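Subject line: Sequence and fold of a protein, written as structure tokens
Enclosed: The protein record, placed directly beneath this head.
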Amino acid sequence: MEKFLNRKITWIPVFLGLMSIWDLRVEIRLLVENFTFIGLFYAIGKHPLAISVLLLLPFMLQKRSR
């Protein structure tokens, strides 16, 4: 437990993740209300940077915490 509490969190990956979610807020709302694969593919095609940041976020946080 002490190792978890003493873990250093860098704020740049967290900030990037929050900004990606902010960029995808309309598409996320539409997908929650009515999920379609066309809507999912549209969100991926329209926001490739936000999707790639969200997919790479666990890797960035793991790399920074070492």
User: Anything to note?
Assistant: Residues 2-65 form one domain. Residues 48-65 form the longest helix (18 residues).
